Amino acid sequence: MKAILSPQLKKDVITQLRNYGKLMRVDKPIGVWLLLWPTLWALWLAGDGHPYQGLFVVFTLGVFVMRSAGCVLNDYVDRKIDPYVERTRTRPIASGAVAPGEALVLFIALSLIAVGLATMLNQPARMLAIIAAGLTVAYPFIKRWVSIPQFVLGAAFGWAVPMAFAAQTGTTPQLAWLVFGAAVIWAVIYDTFYAMVDREDDKKIGVKSTAILFGDVDLFVIAGLQLLMVATLIFVGFMAELGFWYYSSIAGAAGLMVYHLWLARDRQPAGCFAAFLHNHYIGLVIFIGIVLHYSFSPTPPVQ
Q1: How do residues 190-213 score in pLDDT, each as one tens digit?
Q2: Distance of alpha carbon 270 from its chain centroid, rounded?
Q3: How many of the other CB atoms lie within 10 Å of CB of 174?
Q4: Domain range holding 149?
């Protein structure tokens, strides 16, 4: 006999699934893009423009799953803080839409999916995946103890870079760590913009961030980090022997960086948040430059 769900029960199930989706930030894909772009940079560079298709699928799925798991864990850890922050008080756990126990079960389920994806990689990449898991778990707690949690977030978001090189080539050359460095710097930049939105609330509840640490010189420090990121990307181009298209993309990214500083010029939450959201176009522009380089550069003759 088929079990028939009542209309109300169906509605409740759909509502709760939507709450789980909000907890995973499915409705806010910006985090996926910010994590995905450096991963794709690494896959294309490691594969000389032709990464393994299977790795592309595994890493793309992995980005979505790990970002979702990180958001769930973050909200679980911050469940007693989020109700006191204007921007986060409507999150599913903070609002009571999802129970803390449900969030833990969801985090475990997503983690198991991530483990399954990691088993499809070679041994060097699997070993690096263990570190990635540790960084993901550590980040929600770090911001209570240190003033630079954005660097830990950057390491967590950028760790897919050496993993991609290891999965594609079996090694993590200097180029991999240089790209990783660019990804970390970039994460500090955009997450400082993000932290500037909550700066006053964070001061009241004792959460630490680079926005609080940098204080009145925040935009000056961000500008310095942007210059450092551009310099790092230029070194990446030298080391990978990239050409015109790639360096044009760096010029475009630099222009976007100036625009982001302008958006946040008054340090108003709306402008800082807009700068954060718009940052993912930097990753897109750099990726387009890498793809165009490998698409239009002459292929060396076969010996």
Answers
A1: 999 999 998 887 787 777 888 888
A2: 21
A3: 9
A4: 17-295
Report how far apart, in Å, the C-alpha atoms of 33 and of each of 93, 165, 268 are. Answer: 24, 19, 24
Say how far apart CA 195 and CA 180 lie, in whole Å.
22
How many domains would you assign to the chain?
Answer: 1
Residue type, 266: D
Place of tokens 């990635």: 132
* Rounded CA separation 55/111 (Å): 19
CATH number at 215 reads 1.10.357.140
For the chain, counts of helices (H) and of strands (E): 15, 0
266's tokens = 């008054």
Q: What is the pTM (predicted TM-score) of this model?
A: 0.91
Asked, for residue 174, whether it belongs to a domain, the answer is: yes
What DSSP character marks residue 259? H
Q: What is the pLDDT of residues 59-102, one digit of tens each?
A: 999 999 999 999 999 999 888 888 877 778 889 998 888 999 99
